[in-house]
Amino acid sequence: MAISRLTRLVVQSKHITKHESVIPRRTATTTPTGAILPEPEKTPFGLLGLVCAVVPGLLIGAAISKNIANFLEENELFVPSDDDDDDD
């Protein structure tokens, strides 16, 4: 079934390219007349932006992990064994 769909897609794509000429155009970087647009302004966030993005993500991830670990231990789905800590 997948082969028949792939074959049909290939045949349709050959049919389209025979009758229509496709001109590759990137409209996001050029104007309709073909001129190259200026480089967009960059907003520097610096170290403060990095800290404001990373710290909340780490705190939220740690809270979710803690809650899931407590849930698993309360329902006895995963209980850490004390034998793993004996490395004398």
Please explain how this structure is put together.
- The protein is an all-alpha fold and 88 residues long.
- Helix content is 53%, strand content 0%.
- It has two helices and no strands.
- It has helices spanning 2-19, 46-74.
- The relative contact order is 0.04.
Concise account of the structure shown:
The protein is mostly helical and 88 residues long.
Helix content: 40-55%
What is the element string, with H for helices and E for strands? HH
Rg, nearest Å: 29 Å
* Number of strand elements: 0
Weakly predicted, low-confidence segments? none
In round numbers, the mean pLDDT is 80
* Helix/strand structural class: mainly alpha
Distance between the termini: 62 Å
The main β sheet shows up as:
none
Q: Quick one: overall form?
A: flat
Count of alpha/pi helices: 2
How much of the sequence lies in strands comes to under 5%
Main location: mitochondrion
GO biological process, one term: mitochondrial calcium ion homeostasis
Protein name: Essential MCU regulator, mitochondrial
Organism: Pararge aegeria aegeria
